[in-house]
Automatic annotation (TrEMBL):
TPR repeats: 639-672, 673-706, 707-740
Keywords, alphabetical: Repeat, TPR repeat
SUPFAM superfamilies according to UniProt: TPR-like
Protein's recorded name: Uncharacterized protein
Gene3D superfamilies referenced in this protein's UniProt entry, alphabetically: Tetratricopeptide repeat domain
PANTHER family membership: TETRATRICOPEPTIDE REPEAT PROTEIN 27
Signal sequence extent: none
Length: 966
């Protein structure tokens, strides 16, 4: 079959078979599809019903897997006979095909393809087995790292031998530590590494391999970085064409029959998308992976394109998880439209309103309070589960808890405090039951806002999926609104209130880290307590529908906050626990302990010579050879080595070498903004404008609020005389960095070139506001250009000085590149008002008037102001401006400097023209007296100067005119 037909098979959509509601009996295919959807919904009761409707042995085995999965018995799914049989066939295929040298994902994919092709009549059951096994491994990883309950190593030991197929060396024993180390390398993507302190990353590795086969049907694994940028330029799903990823321009799809069997699964792409999001969140970097996003969009294009008639809430969940994926990968808009679609699909109605009420105990007058009214389409009538009720009454270890029996005995002792207050005082209360007053008697806030309208205080019992949608709307509020009080008021209490107090934020984050545990508490040691604790399937039922942080993610945020507040020792301890060695070295350096840092790095290199450790050693020893070693050890995949190597070359003034290193870095990791910025800055130094434009364009695509990048992009376009592009770039730049005078000067020039005179005058006002920052003289050339363009639109140039007027010369090369660390204190933005041609003169008059009120001793400004009044027909004002121009030129010692004498003589000549046009006897007399004084002083040292002689002739002419007037 040719490649075109392969693509056609890849783009096939699964046939959705829905049961006729009037029929009592479902077909075998319908039963399995119903079971698939029930697994997504954790609906074990529905699967038990389906088991009674089939007598097929293969279907029963598949339903057994689905039932175990929906009950949270994920390890038992892997132990199931059908999974074990599949795994045996898989291992045989790996050995038979000799695939041990390939990446585990490619190895598993090719081996599974071989297993499927070898048994074509059994493809459907095999597809479900692979799907449910992959989902089980994924949920095991999420249970151990996100939700709990934790599991002892002994309970999972029997699963490890079967994972030996993932290892490259068949002679190595499949121990926990061996599989752990191998998985951390295998899960690297786009040159970024995962957290090493996660529990059993091999389970995620296995899930990714199995679900990659099921959901992507391709032999191109995640180690092959996608060359195209799909994050800054995402394709809307409405226009999305689902194509397999390629390596070296070649797609590597599976066998068409195998692909068709996998596409028939209803939730294969859904589980694959979940595994991709989990993979992204495991990476240490906060930058989204372009490769993982490309695969995620491939999967969710299928998920949201399906219909789910058997459960309308599944459509809402699909849209919600698609929106969360966009949030995790920081796609423009961050899922807002998908959250709205989820709300519409679920029937949730949300209204932000207000109601009068009181917040404090001593508040007398009610004030307006923000209220959120939310109602589900169908009210949730289900009560809390037995396990949830049991857990709510369990005392948490953080409060030194005791059992419920001990609580009753304490009550019988007759303490004068109430029963609940005594428990709080003794630190023995269940942490869910502590009220605000019990925790802090001096607190002035009410437990809840006291509304005057009782309806405002009533809570609707929302469906769980609707509660998850509301949480996603909180993410949308944070993503699309400024960080102010109103934004915070629209959300429930944020995990850390950084806007109010950095110290409070750290304390709250530390409390979250302390309470974030996947293990049962001390008070749950009895068998009944363990049985009553929330089981895995309840904890994981909606974990993919909310942004629930794993412990290592919380600890990373906590360490970052410690570092930002200067608490270096605490940050160091946390970073060491997370094995974030880059940050560990940074903390040691901040603590002025470089020797300890180097000893630590060399110790780690002896244990595992990773590219990161070689880079850390290079940072400490300033030896660039270590970066080269890191690059080679990573097989040219570790972009950090090239970025640091490039910086070192720049510090040694080897610009061309530095540019080459940064080009290699962005080729491997195209989502790293600072590398693109540095590449653009270096390209500007070498005047490589195409590369600079490409680099800064990528920066603003990745980070649209980077004002420096927009400014530099505008400067480059200005150099290339691309004024429209430069104007647009400077407009974006000034939205972010309004106090950079260089940017305003460049913006004025662009605005004049594209005839945006209103914007140009607004920018001139901004430059006047910023005079205390730059101390630069007023740009009289730009003022002259404005006057010429607005008042004399038909004139080509100002010709008062016969072509010698400096105001007519515009320096087109006055472009100021911006540094990445330019300080920006921030001012209140003021948007320019749209001005028509009719009021440009009024605006220009205000600008010139304000300029001359601030700068009174600049003769060029007075000359431009006089020229403006000439064009407007204000002869008297023009004469007054020229007189002030002459006075500004008569500074101390002017008659001793030839240049100053020449300038004053020319200005006096222009002044005489205005006096002569007036023609009155008084004007002629005043002009004669003024010119006689100027000529007299000028002739002392410069009697032969042509300008002095010319002015003397004007003086004789005035004397003649005055005599005739008498």
């Amino acid at each position: 079959m040719d490649s075109d037909s392969d693509d056609d098979v890849f783009n096939m959509d699964a046939v959705v078979l829905t049961a006729d509601e009037d029929e009592d009996v479902l077909s075998e295919g319908d039963i399995l599809k119903e079971a698939e959807l029930a697994v997504i919904d954790s609906n074990s009761a529905r699967i038990e019903q389906l088991q009674t409707q089939t007598s097929n042995a293969r279907s029963h085995a598949t339903l057994d897997l689905a039932l175990l999965l929906s009950r949270g018995e994920y390890a038992d799914v892997v132990r199931h006979e059908s999974v074990q049989s599949l795994w045996k066939s898989l291992g045989d295929a790996v050995r038979r095909l000799g695939l041990t040298t390939k990446h585990p994902c490619t190895r598993i994919t090719q081996a599974l393809e071989e297993v499927f092709v070898a048994d074509p009549s059994n493809m459907q059951p095999l597809s479900y087995t692979v799907l449910f096994a992959g989902a089980a491994f994924l949920n095991l990883f999420v249970q151990l790292n996100y939700t709990g309950p934790a599991m002892e190593d002994a309970a999972l030991a029997d699963l490890l031998p079967m994972l030996h197929v993932l290892l490259d060396d068949s002679t190595v024993e499949a121990t926990k530590s061996t599989l752990h180390s191998h998985a951390l390398v295998s899960l690297q993507v786009d040159g970024e590494s995962p957290f090493s302190i996660c529990e059993y990353p091999v389970f995620l590795e296995t899930a990714r391999c199995l679900l990659h086969f099921v959901g992507l049907q391709s032999k191109v694994n995640w180690t092959h970085s996608d060359p195209d940028d799909h994050i800054t330029k995402p394709t809307p799903l409405a226009n999305f064409l689902r194509r397999p990823r390629t390596v070296h321009g070649m797609a590597r799809p599976l066998n068409p029959q195998v692909t068709a069997a996998l596409l028939a699964l209803s939730t294969g792409a859904w589980w694959t998308g979940r595994s991709l999001m989990t993979h992204q969140r495991l990476l240490i970097t906060k930058e989204p992976s372009n490769t993982l996003w490309t695969e995620t969009q491939l999967c969710f294009s299928v998920v949201v394109g399906r219909s789910y008639p058997s459960d309308t809430y599944l459509s809402a969940r699909a849209q919600l998880e698609w929106g969360l994926a966009q949030h995790v990968f920081e796609i423009h808009g961050k899922g807002r439209a998908s959250f709205d679609d989820a709300m519409a699909a679920s029937g949730l109605t949300v209204q932000m309103s207000g109601s009068m009420g009181k917040r404090t105990k001593y508040q007398v007058k009610s004030v307006a309070q923000m209220v959120l009214h939310a109602t589900s389409r169908v009210e949730n009538v289900a009560g809390a589960s037995a396990s949830a009720l049991a857990e709510a009454q369990t005392t948490h270890v953080d409060f030194g808890g005791q059992s419920s029996g001990e609580m009753e005995e304490a009550n019988e002792e007759g303490d004068p405090l109430s029963f609940e207050d005594q428990l709080v005082a003794d630190g023995k209360a269940a942490y869910r039951n502590i009220t605000r007053d019990q925790a802090d008697p001096d607190n002035i806030l009410l437990e809840h806002v006291a509304f005057e309208d009782g309806a405002a205080a009533s809570d609707s019992n929302l469906q769980v999926i609707d509660q998850a949608i509301l949480l996603s709307m909180c993410l949308d509020v944070k993503n699309n609104n400024p960080a102010d009080g109103l934004t915070s008021e629209q959300m429930v209490r944020d995990p850390c209130e950084t806007q109010r107090s950095r110290e409070r934020a750290i304390l709250q984050m530390q409390a979250l880290v302390d309470q974030h545990t996947t293990r049962l508490t001390i008070t749950q040691t009895s068998l009944k307590a363990i049985q009553d604790a929330a089981p895995a399937h309840e904890r994981l039922a909606y974990v993919y529908s909310v942004i629930f942080p794993p412990r290592y993610e919380l600890k990373r945020d906590l360490a970052d906050r410690y570092l930002s507040c200067g608490v270096f020792a605490s940050a160091l301890a946390t970073f060491q626990e997370l094995e974030m060695w880059d940050e560990v070295v940074q903390c040691f350096q901040l603590l002025d302990q470089p020797k300890r840092a180097e000893a630590l790095v060399r110790e780690r290199l002896a244990v595992a010579p990773t590219p990161l450790m070689w880079c850390c050693l290079g940072d400490l020893t300033e030896d660039v050879a270590h970066y080269e070693t890191a690059w080679e050890v990573s097989k040219h995949r570790f972009a950090r080595a090239k970025r640091t190597w490039g910086r070192k070359m720049f510090e040694q003034h080897k610009i061309d070498e530095a540019i080459g290193h940064f080009q290699d870095a962005v080729r491997v990791a195209p989502m790293y903004t600072q590398a693109w910025f540095f590449l653009g800055s270096l390209s500007m130094r070498t005047e490589d404008w195409p590369t600079a434009v490409q680099a800064f364009t990528r920066v603003v695509q990745l980070s649209p609020d980077d004002g420096e990048a927009w400014g530099n992009l505008g400067s480059i376009h200005l150099r290339l005389r691309q004024h429209n592009e430069a104007f647009n770039a400077f407009q974006e730049a000034l939205k972010q960095r309004r106090t950079l005078w260089q940017m305003w000067e460049n913006f004025v020039l662009c605005a004049m070139q594209v005839h945006k005179f209103g914007d140009a005058m607004y920018a001139m006002h901004q430059l006047l506001d910023l005079r205390d920052k730059h101390k630069r003289p007023v740009d009289h050339e730009m003022l002259a250009w404005l006057v010429e363009a607005i008042v004399y639109p038909q004139a080509d140039a100002i010709a008062d000085d016969g072509g010698e007027n400096e105001a007519a010369t515009i320096d087109m090369h006055a472009v100021y590149p911006l540094d990445d660390d330019d300080n920006d204190d921030g001012v209140v933005p003021r948007a320019p008002t749209a001005a028509s041609d009719a009021n440009y003169k009024t605006q220009l008059a205000k600008l010139l008037g304000r300029t001359t009120s601030i700068v009174t001793n600049n003769p060029k400004v007075w000359q431009v102001y006089a020229h403006f009044h000439d064009g407007c027909g204000h002869k008297a004002k023009a004469l007054e401006c020229r007189l002030k121009e002459c006075r500004a030129l008569q500074k101390a010692g002017w008659d001793k400097n030839q240049h100053d004498v020449e300038l004053l003589c020319r200005a006096a000549k222009r002044l005489s023209v205005s006096y002569i046009e007036d023609g009155s006897k008084a004007s002629l007399h005043a002009c004669r007296l003024y010119l006689r004084g100027v000529v007299k002083k000028s002739q002392v040292d410069f009697a032969d100067n042509p300008d002095v002689q010319d002015l003397q002739r004007v003086l004789h002419q005035l004397e003649t005119l005055e005599a005739q007037a008498n």
